[in-house]
């Protein structure tokens, strides 16, 4: 069994405890148990007790840490648990720079433990259907506009907090390059709009917008023009019986048990680092643009 600690009890942390307590029957996730959680506020959660960071790091029966804090605290927590020889599952994004993510991955390798970044957005039924629907089609031009809001403190620059959308684009269309990026911000009104211009290996343009403001509903507007058709809506897909966080938990547990093929692990690491590198570049170009405007 892999005894675990959950760090940060917000939406994601709550779900992690819930899923470890009731894992998918006959799946690798049954090998996890929850020994405690770390929170600055709560004492007890779903019958599980709070433990100290020192306990979590030093106890031999704790082998795994789930890092579910705001993005800004991921690096510190991951580093601390990896240093202590614990496996880590972190909610996306792993870190706020590409360089940090490379360092963390190298550290995991050095310690001989698993470092897993959750990507539930790739596990939703509508995304899986979209991927099937576009298979074999040649993209001419694409557009993805995400709205939500407003962005909570501690979640970082929109290219990182919105890494799920960037991961979609990379998973659908392959590795990308950034050709331009800009950012509009009105701090007083909690308004933010990031626009990134990307290009595929076949030199086809993709526009990615993240727009956050009070009152904006959480939505994705897509327009993917292919040689044979245009897709403007996510395909209808029946919700799968196994929830997306549970699917991710099973994948992480399979990694702990050494059941995931090496080439799959390699491809995943490459995709994650590529997305963080793009996010870095988008941030750089956006900030350069903002500096020139002032
Ligand atoms: P949240 O704000 O609901 O929860 C974060 C929690 O972490 C808060 O309760 C905060 O008090 C706690 N926290 C922060 N620093 C801490 C520390 N040092 N020690 C202990 N507790 C600490 O946020 P969330 O929506 O649960 O998101 C958490 C992470 O999960 C983020 O990285 C996010 O990108 C990722 N994620 C969330 C979802 C989702 O559906 N909510 C989906 C995918 C990924």
UniProtKB/TrEMBL annotation:
Record's protein name: Biliverdin reductase A
One GO MF annotation is: nucleotide binding
- Please name the PANTHER family in this protein's record: BILIVERDIN REDUCTASE A (PTHR43377:SF1)
Instruction: Please give the SUPFAM superfamilies that the UniProt record associates with this protein.
Output: Glyceraldehyde-3-phosphate dehydrogenase-like, C-terminal domain, NAD(P)-binding Rossmann-fold domains
Transmembrane region positions? none
Q: Where is the Gfo/Idh/MocA-like oxidoreductase N-terminal domain?
A: 4-119
Organism encoding this protein: Oncorhynchus tshawytscha
Q: Give GO BP annotations, semicolon-separated.
A: heme catabolic process
The Biliverdin reductase catalytic domain sits at 127-237
**High-level lineage:** Eukaryota, Metazoa, Chordata, Craniata, Vertebrata
């Amino acid at each position: 069994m892999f005894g675990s600690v959950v760090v940060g009890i917000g939406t994601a942390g709550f779900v992690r405890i819930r899923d470890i307590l009731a894992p998918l029957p006959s799946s690798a996730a049954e090998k996890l148990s929850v020994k405690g959680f770390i929170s600055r506020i709560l004492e007890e959660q779903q019958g599980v007790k709070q433990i100290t960071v020192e306990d979590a790091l030093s106890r031999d029966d704790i082998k795994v840490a789930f890092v579910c804090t705001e993005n800004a605290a991921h690096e510190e927590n991951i580093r601390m648990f990896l240093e202590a020889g614990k496996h880590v599952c972190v909610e996306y994004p792993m870190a706020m720079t590409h360089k940090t993510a490379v360092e963390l991955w190298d550290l995991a390798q050095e310690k001989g433990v698993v470092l897993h970044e959750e990507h539930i957005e790739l596990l939703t039924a509508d995304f899986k259907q979209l991927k099937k629907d576009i298979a074999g089609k040649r993209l001419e031009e694409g557009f993805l506009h995400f709205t939500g809001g407003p962005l909570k403190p501690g979640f970082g620059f929109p290219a990182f907090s919105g890494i799920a959308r960037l991961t979609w684009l990379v998973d659908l269309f392959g590795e990308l390059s950034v050709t331009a990026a800009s950012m509009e911000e009105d701090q007083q009104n909690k308004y933010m709009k990031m626009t990134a211009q990307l290009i595929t290996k076949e030199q086809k343009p993709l526009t990615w917008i993240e727009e956050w403001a009070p009152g904006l509903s959480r939505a994705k507007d897509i327009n993917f023009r292919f040689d044979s058709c245009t897709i403007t809506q996510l395909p209808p897909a029946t919700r799968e019986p196994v929830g997306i966080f549970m699917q991710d938990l099973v994948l992480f547990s399979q990694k702990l048990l050494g059941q995931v093929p090496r080439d799959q692990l390699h491809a995943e690491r490459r995709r994650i680092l590529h997305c963080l590198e793009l996010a870095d570049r988008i941030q750089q170009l956006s900030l350069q643009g903002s500096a020139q405007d002032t």
